[in-house]
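Q: What structure does this chain adopt?
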Amino acid sequence: MHFESAVVDAPPLEWERLLGGRVTVAHADPAAQRLRPLGPGGVNATALSTGPATVRHTPVPGTGIVDFWYVAEGSVLAVQDGRSIAAQEGDLVSTDRNQALKLRFTRTATKALHIPLTVRRLGLTPVEARAVAGRRWTRDKGPATLLLSVLGGLAASIDECDDAAFQPFAHHLTDLVACAAAEAARSHGGDREVRTAMLMRIQGYAKLHLDDPSLDLASLARQHGVSVRYVQKLFQEHGLSPTKWIRRERLSRCLADLQDPLKSGVSVAMIGRCWGFLTPSYFTRAFRQEYGLTPRQIRAATQPEGA
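A:
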């Protein structure tokens, strides 16, 4: 029986949690769908498996997120903004969360990884994000080839990968996605290529030295032989503030450590200090401003029962 001849429309709560907005799912076998979150660890990745299905997403306006879909098995057809993108096993598809989306899974069994990243986390402008979304990524060259190799390895070991194993890997994965996205944005950027490359170098250096309390705007400019104003301009072209970007990167590392069960014995103050927050009160205040909860509340919420 063709799967669309026996449509079942049910409240797709898992898909709505995945994408937000309103989602409808038409499929012949609801039990064939499984969505498994891979967090915590700084990225809300999800491993999904499904039989034949059509997923339609109506977005909430103003959501600055690019969704990346890696096809581990089967195939996916993504329809968005009048374009149809067909992806086979080993391909990656990127879509814009701001645009209505239809995903069509036609195989008996399709397995995929879903990785959503904010435009801010990707380090892109809204214009660049639109250029990065709506495309199929293949193993051609550069960062995309490395990214697809890593995603393939992750997908192959997903059944043996629990949350604790995935967590330390999460930041490296998102950095690699951001690097591939920046490379794609540069191919559309023309005269901005040099400045984007410089920004990537500065951000790459900063990420390696987030644990240094002296890391700031002035030290970044000094390290790369440019003026403070030039560094500010590079970040501003992407809608970013250098100081806020450094603080958010540090806070995201603190969040991952607070959620890491292997670091449950490390004090909250020490975790903050390890990522450049020398004053506990400032660390708590900045953390609550970013995430809406204090570091202790985050840790308590992610502790396993009985800990």
